[in-house]
Design a protein that fits this description.
single chain, alpha+beta, Rossmann fold, Elongation Factor Tu (Ef-tu), domain 3, Alpha-Beta Plaits, eight-stranded antiparallel β-sheet, about 30% strand, binds guanosine-5'-diphosphate, binds magnesium ion
């Protein structure tokens, strides 16, 4: 592929609700621009974009793919991002490196949750948006209804640039409202078109929509507005130039109509991207390292690039995707990773088309490419010239919402699990792996149950590591409710040989502190050197638990009396006596199970408040507040037992169709209600039997 000057590059992301047609559109663009000679289909698992075996198996996109398209002497780097909620991390990283977002809407469904997620990700970065109403050939396709849903949710900047001719099986073309020409699609899928006059029956509607469009364009250009109000004739080229400016400033969101799988309207979308999408040199970037340097897309300036994606490939190893923001990067060179503060050796550079890696000698400002085998670099890092160290704005990833516990199936899985988990989190920064301090389990967190499951399937497929997955243990605790005095235990074994003798009296009482130990031994009843062993015995017994094997907390143990034997007493004997005495005392002190309670904040569109509240009530939550937020959202604050919300990511997604978010933080422990105690004890016993 030839090298393009910065003004002939476009970096464009395709975003939408899952299934709206992004991958099919990428395929149609590659086919129309003759980069491929066969139009693949998602159902057949033969598209360029969905190349990963997990994507082919599930016929959905899981990871962002890149497809460079050459069109009208311009290189358009298409980033095809996944649309499902679990992969929103990919949306964030793709949105970070594109200068234009194409948001697809299914013509028979209108705006959906994923459309809103894409829209807000674009708004967050002030990335201009083109709306494409796709699947115009499908049953129930309705351009007007879909357009209306977009205008009602996204506002009046949304105006059609195209008016479709026909719909469903009779979707045969569009009227370009700027040119006021009818563009008819060929009957085949070759993407060719013919230009003609606007059909009479659509002329009025087209005129009215054109007026809206011209007015919207003129609104962002004073001189043009004057001429418009004075009914001056305004040339189409002038309008197109003003549209480009208004678009880049976010004053207008043009709407197109397409049908990707029959390759209709694809060429027109590519034309629109060449005509109005910003080029990299229209968008400078500011460094965030306090040096306040503005980085321009100038190939001769000092090198700076942002890493937006990492793939752990079982064969080539780590593949790092990046966008060059300034300067030129050459194969076989050295750069500085200013985020990790380490030098990196750059081997062979590639541009990527799906899974295909096309070697190139250099990558210039504005372009997107990849390199293998970097060692010190993660997604979000800045790579720069050793001589000018800058840090570019990184990528903000959403917090994980769902946590699972994983355990290796076999010994060999155990040996490989650590590395494999590290590699899949390297690939996906919305995954977190760690060790639960309270339960010692290896836990993995992600944006949802299927997100975690897919990641573990990938780990099994890519790195041959198989694990059992389950909900993490709830870190219950146990404690006592009343004091018990003078509980005695004598550990005595004197049957020949070295005997054992340890004898203690203890008091136990509830305490605000995690654990208190004191002694009021009188007259050396228990020699001083054995007192630490008594405390150790008590602690060990506390760790083992009383009712269900959960650690005991909030007790005060006092060693009050005892006796010893000159020969047979030992630390071990007193430790055993102490742990038995503790169990005896605590079991007599009305032990109970404590459960962790979380503070949860749930943010939802107002219309779901009732459903979310009643669901929280079924989860034993205590709502402490409801705060109206901007854009018609409400935040509910509540205290809820951790055990009730282990699957809340899934529950909330189904209640709010994916429009709700939540955060949780640990708050306190509370006593488990009596009706739940038996099931907790039974579950703990089963788990212990399975692990013994
Ligand atoms: N009828 C019709 N089906 C389409 C069109 N675009 C995509 N599809 C189908 O919609 C499904 C999802 O498409 P895909 O490209 O994977 O959507 P993505 O999830 O946004 O990448 C697939 O079954 C496609 O064949 C279209 O324009 N018309
Ligand atoms: Mg896709």
């Amino acid at each position: 592929m030839k090298t393009y000057p910065v003004e002939r590059i476009r970096n464009v992301g395709l975003f939408s609700h899952g299934g709206a047609g992004k991958t099919s559109m990428t395929e149609a663009m590659l086919f129309t621009s003759k980069a491929i000679n066969r139009l693949g289909r998602v159902e057949d698992g033969n598209t360029v974009s969905d190349w990963d075996p997990d994507e082919i198996k599930r016929t959905i996109s899981i990871s962002t793919s890149i497809a460079p398209i050459e069109w009208r002497d311009t290189k358009i780097n298409i980033l095809d991002a996944p649309g499902y909620a679990d992969f929103v991390g990919e949306v964030k990283s793709a949105m970070r490196v594109v200068d234009c977002a194409v948001v697809l809407v299914d013509a028979s469904a209108g705006v959906e949750v994923g459309t809103e997620v894409a829209w807000s990700a674009a708004t967050e970065r002030s990335t201009p948006v083109i709306l494409v109403i796709n699947k115009m050939d499908r049953e129930n396709a309705n351009f007007a209804t879909a357009l209306e849903s977009a205008q009602s949710i996204f506002g009046s900047t949304v105006v059609p640039l195209h008016l479709p001719i026909g719909a469903e099986s009779s979707f045969s073309g569009v009227i370009d409202l700027l040119d006021m020409k009818a563009i008819t699609f060929s009957k085949t899928t070759d993407g060719s078109t013919t230009v003609g006059e606007v059909p009479a029956e659509l002329r009025d509607e087209a005129e009215a929509l054109r007026l809206q469009l011209v007015e919207k364009i003129a609104e962002s250009d004073e001189e043009l507005m004057m001429r418009y109000l004075e009914d001056d004739a305004i040339e189409v080229d002038e309008l197109r130039a003003a549209l480009r400016t208004a678009f880049a400033q976010g004053h207008i969101v043009p709407v197109l109509a397409t049908a990707a799988t029959t390759n209709r309207g694809t060429g027109l979308l590519l034309d629109t991207l060449v005509d109005i999408a910003p080029a990299p040199h229209d968008c400078s970037a500011k460094t965030i390292d306090g040096k306040d340097i503005t980085v321009y897309a100038d190939a001769d300036a000092s090198f700076a690039a942002l890493v937006f994606k990492t793939i752990a490939d079982p064969f080539v190893g780590k593949l790092t995707y990046f966008r060059v923001y300034s300067g030129t990067l050459k194969s076989d060179s050295h750069v500085w990773n200013s985020t990790s503060g380490k030098e990196e050796r750059i081997g062979q550079l590639f541009i990527l088309r799906g899974k295909e890696q096309i070697p190139v000698g250099e990558l210039r400002a504005g372009d997107i490419g990849a390199v293998a085998k970097l060692t010190e670099t993660r997604t979000g890092d800045t790579l720069c010239a050793t001589g000018r160290r800058v840090i570019l704005d990184g990528i903000t990833f959403p917090y994980p919402l769902f946590t699972a516990a994983v355990s290796p199936k076999t010994k060999s899985d155990l040996d490989k699990m650590g590395t494999a988990l590290a590699r899949i989190t390297d690939e996906d920064q919305t995954l977190r792996v760690g060790r639960d301090q309270a339960t010692g389990e290896t836990i993995i967190s992600g944006l949802g149950e299927s997100h975690v499951q897919i990641a573990l399937d990938r780990m099994a497929r890519k790195f041959g590591v198989n694990v059992d997955v389950g909900l993490p243990m709830v870190p219950y605790r146990e404690t006592i409710q009343r004091s018990v005095q003078r509980v005695e235990y004598k550990h005595k074994k004197q049957t020949g040989g070295h005997g054992q003798y340890g004898h203690v009296f203890i008091d136990v009482a509830p305490s605000d502190k995690e654990f208190e130990f004191s002694e009021s031994i009188f007259g050396g009843a228990v020699p001083r050197q054995y007192i630490p062993a008594v405390e150790k015995g008590v602690r060990e017994a506390m760790d083992e638990g009383l009712l269900a094997g959960f650690p005991v907390v909030n007790v005060h143990v006092t060693l009050t009396d005892g006796s010893y034997h000159n020969v047979d007493s030992s630390e071990m004997a007193f430790k055993i006596a102490a742990s038995q005495a503790f169990k005896k005392a605590a079991l007599a002190a009305q032990p109970v199970i404590l459960e962790p309670v979380l503070k949860i904040e749930v943010t939802i569109p107002d219309n779901y408040t009732g459903d979310v509240m009643s669901d929280l009530t079924t989860k034993r939550a205590h709502v402490s507040g409801m705060t109206p937020m901007e854009r018609g959202f409400t935040r509910i604050e509540a205290d809820v037992p951790a055990a009730e919300v282990q699957r809340y990511a899934t529950d909330l997604r189904s209640i709010t169709q994916g429009r709700g978010t939540f955060t949780t933080t640990f708050s306190h422990y509370q006593q488990v209600p009596a009706h739940l105690v038996d099931s907790i004890i039974a579950a703990a016993k089963t788990r212990q039997e399975n692990h013994s």
